Amino acid sequence: MLFLSQLTLGYKDLQVLKISDEYSIHRVIYSLFEDYRSNAEKTSSVKSGFLYAEQKSNSIERRFLILSDRAPNIRNEKIGTVITKKIPENFLKFSQYRFRLLVNPTIRDKNTGKLKPVIGETNISVWFAEKSVSSWGFATSDLNVTSIEVLNFKGKNGNLLTISRAEIEGTLTVTNFELFASSFAHGIGRAHAFGCGLLQLVPIYQ
């Protein structure tokens, strides 16, 4: 079972919670969920069980969409306004969807083995279209890279983190329903902890 939540932080919330960068957002959203992973699992590939993406941002309000495998725990938290609902079982049974996605586009350097960002709208579009079919269970059309940004902020231990993030919109056609459902539930690409990877879907009724 999956849950979809909307978190709205008003002006006072932003001030009280000291929202200033991506790590402060990460801290607030992660506080809504008990972490069932061990320390070893946290440093490995075991997922947190939730994804999030920012929907709206201005000086007086910020709004986030959260997908999770458990409902957020807000009984003892005074964190904005949270509205949660269960995702219907048939939501992932459609053949086509309109989608929006914030994604961290990266490739592994063949010489060094290190990850590096995919640069430029055309390269990001090609990367995403190829990965969609091979890794995520869907084919794409009408792709549009609406924004590209580089985020620089300090992490938990004060170390500097840099993440490239692109916003992509378009239409997808499911080619592998099992893989597509896994991609939706577990996220696309990397940097899930900092607002990347959540497929925001609107079914296309035929």
From TrEMBL:
Pfam family, one: CRISPR_assoc
Ranges in coiled-coil conformation: none
Alphabetized CDD domains for the sequence: Cas6_I-E
InterPro entries: CRISPR-assoc_prot_Cse3
Protein name: Type I-E CRISPR-associated protein Cas6/Cse3/CasE
Lineage: Bacteria, Pseudomonadati, Pseudomonadota, Betaproteobacteria, Burkholderiales
Chain's gene name: cas6e
